[in-house]
Amino acid sequence: MNILLLGSGGRENAFAWKIVNSHKCNRLFVAPGNAGTAEIATNVAISPTDFEGLAAFVLQNQIDMIVVGPEEPLVKGVSDYFKNHPTLSNLPVVGPPKLGAQLEGSKDFSKRFMQRHGIPTAGYETFTKETIDAGLDYLHSHSLPIVLKADGLAAGKGVLICTTREEAIESFKEMLLQSKFGAASDKVVVEEFLDGIELSVFVATDGLNYRILPEAKDYKRIGEADTGLNTGGMGAVSPVPFADAAFLHKVEERIVKPTVAGLKKDNIPFVGFLFIGLMNIKGNPYVIEYNVRMGDPETEAVLPRIGSDFVDLLLAMGTQTLDKYTLEILPHTCTTVVMVAGGYPGDYEKGHSIHGLSEASKKESAKIFHAGTKLGENGAVLTNGGRVLAVTGMGGSIQEALDNAYKTVSEISWEGAYFRRDIGQDILKYKN
User: In b/e form, how buried is each residue of 349-386, taking b as 16+ CB within 10 angstroms?
Assistant: First the structure.
């Protein structure tokens, strides 16, 4: 098969790595890709939201399947575009249409969906600029802490946990009246705070059938001990030792099955990956949020644990034959450490040369996935984003996997590079 993968981050580098290792892959193109995907596939200078440009490329290069990595093209309707194209309507696209993508594109839409289908989640109310007075009254009577969520896409940064009423009121006004997160905060969801331990479960579905992929725990804050600003993700661990078989059975029965059934009942077609952000509260799962694609950096810890053919999985999803696919999950542990540019998630510089990559890449105990990188002159790899590299260590335990990840990280450098040194430390107490 000739496959077109959309995106340019660490998630897409991990996808590309799994795709090119499949006997089903003839050629892989990545639009637009990064320096890591350029090593194993052909990068194409087309934006994932340039649907006409993508369609022309698909026709010119006899593409057999499209795989969508990030959320933005999904929310903007890339799947719908190809489904309605006069000559490409039968092309398998792995990624839900615009309506299904609203599970991520609108927090209010997803909360109403969960409420409708009896899926356990935090209590909430939604407010706009027009209903701000009612919102302020609600905040005055709400228990602390208070969670504020921008309704729309905010690059993983639109969630605020406010520990005082004053902070909640000020942030609420900033979101609605001063567009703190742009158009994403035209609506604000106010939620009760769930006190537990967080993890993510990933589901592949063809709209009828599903397969549950390995779970993961990620680390969002920039600072160690989960301090500082939210980021797109600073690290991940899979499997999650506190998510035992009994807990994951509850996730499947109480959340996965009702979600897939709810999508069918609401006539929401959904082909793709469903990322379910969960809170484990005394052994019971509650949904924090849905995303309609794989997570980043969780993908870099999850995909190395899939032993069965990945293109077969993607094709089964795209052709609604997932019931015939056997998912093999490998028993080893993967831990991912994200290396970021100095200053991230605030202002940061691009264009710094990355040193030590070629030697560090030779290790069998670790895998380096490129996120924000580009090729410079003479083939030098340069930083080109906030999150630059995701380094995944593998081992028989969390500690062994972490040792392998951090040993590899120590061999890579660029001006201003930063990474958290405490990924996975909080869950070492659990049996792994």
Answer: eeebebbebeebeebeebbbbbbbbbbbeeeebbbbbb
Alpha carbon distance 182, 220 (integer Å)? 21
Q: Which H helix or E strand runs over 278?
A: strand 272-281
pLDDT (tens digit, 9 = 90+) per residue, 114-151? 999 999 999 999 999 999 999 999 999 899 999 999 98
pLDDT, residue 154, reads 80
296 exposure class (CB count in 10 Å sphere: 0-12, 13-18, 19+): buried
Q: What is the CATH number of the domain that holds 148?
A: 3.30.1490.20
pLDDT of residue 334: 98
28: Cβ–Cβ under 8 A, 6 or more apart, which residues? 2, 3, 5, 16, 19, 20, 40, 41, 42
Specify whether 201 is located in the same domain as 188: no
CATH number of the CATH domain containing 221: 3.30.470.20
Last residue of a domain, one of 131, 161, 192: 192
Domain range for residue 368? 197-427
Q: Is the pLDDT of residue 432 over 80?
A: no
Q: Distance between CA 150 and CA 176 in Å, rounded?
A: 9
Residues 6+ apart with CB under 8 A from 360: 366, 368, 408, 411, 412
Total structural domains within the chain: 3
CA 116 to chain centre: 25
Residue 60 has a pLDDT of 98
